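It is worth pausing here to work through a concrete case rather than discussing structure prediction in the abstract. The textbook approach is simple: state the sequence, then state the predicted structure, then interpret. We follow exactly that order.
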Amino acid sequence: MTTPTFTPFTSKGTARVALYLQDAHRIREGMEFAKYAEQRGFEAVWQAESRLVREATVPMAAFASVTETLKVGSGVVDCWSRNPARLAATFSTLDDLAPGRVLLGIGAWWDPLAKKVGIDRAKPLRAMREIVTAVRALLNNENVTMNGEFVKLDGVELDYVYQERRPKDVPIYIGATGMQMMELTGEIADGVVLNYLVSPEYNAKAIEALGAGAAKKNRSMDSIDRPQLVVCSVHEDRKTALDMARLMVTQYLGQQPHIMKASGVPQSLLDKVGSVLTWPATHEQVVAASKHVPDEIVQMLTASGTPADAREQVAHYMRNGATCPILYPLGDVRAMIDAFADWKPVL
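Step two, the predicted structure:
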């Protein structure tokens, strides 16, 4: 089998670009956005599953059903709450709907949410290694026996009765933030979903760790896809764009400080925001805490401003190792799609 090579560009010389959707819109609206993104040359749509709001695979099926070429990915499902055999069966089913267009993004979730629902995230590296190994083998039409610490399978396979028995072409992407998970990703995954609300400079450390993992298996970095979530707030008025992004940045400063710390956000700012926000935070708390967040932090962590401002910041992420920006729109989704359609950045 030929090893794929991933670059930041399509065969037409335009940038590879994808759309990211969470729960800000009704699913039927998301379906229209997916159709529009496909028409405008976007490569993929990724559906979030980070909080207890919207499960990823139902919207993925909806997006796949109204598109023809657009890839659909989970950005990302957690590795704890689904049995790996059921996870493989779920993504095999999605591949039945959209053969060759499904991307399995999986991550180790985060606290305090995991702890609040009774999940102990002990040994996430071991768990991820076992789960990715098992799911890949099942999708590859193998009979799997594994007596691991987290995965226990006894002669299990995807037991098709009526459907064609075939390996499923479902690449596995790990949503990694920490450097140890990044290194594991370089070793075992088809790609990494680089996180959002990180600085482009954070990517340099991430790519180094990814390369260290790849070297363990004599893999080329070109064979590891590196799409990156990027919060994108586009408006002709720069201040309006920054203010839209500021609220989201504030929420993450308070609730996911591990991501913010990895980006070099000062601890003093994290402490100020954390003193105002609780979990889950109210809108009033987010607004109050946002007054502590300066423009330079918003600009460092997001692609916000005029369309030209946003494109330049996204290009900065790409120059720092991202192969395909996964744009998380704040504000007018179609305007953001238009801002990046047929885009030819200079990298």
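Step three, interpretation. Residues 237-305 form one domain. The chain has two domains: 18-232+307-340, 237-305.
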